[in-house]
Amino acid sequence: MGTGYRRPFNFMVRILRLAFRRFTIRCSRLAIVVLATGCGYWGRRPLNQPAPVERHSPVWIWSGGEVNKWHAVVITQDSVSGIPYQMSVWCDSCRRRMPRAQVDSMKLGYRTFTEYATQGIGVVTVGLLLEAAVCSLVAPQDGQC
What we know:
2 domains; 6-stranded antiparallel beta sheet; 6 strands
């Protein structure tokens, strides 16, 4: 007598469990990717002599107890000049100059392979999750979504 009511209930419970499982798996993957992508690393290499520096590469300059982060840096024998990192690379009126005698140390920033790989994986994963979201909205009954 009561079994007729149990079957739809059990069926709904199974569907909800399956939907919850899929949702948590997708969200956990997204959380891992977001955490990994946010943990970018700039490698740093000391600069001791005048050297060419790429326009977009950051350079940390220690001088008198403070640190300046510049890009578009030009290093000569007697001075260092660059644009503060928060400014546009093309803002030549923003350029600052400092005598080399005031510079305690300099480090050139560079991106590592793992940072590029993590960003690439993050972009692909976000794309796949967007595709899955659109698929589940457009064709919710389709087994491939």
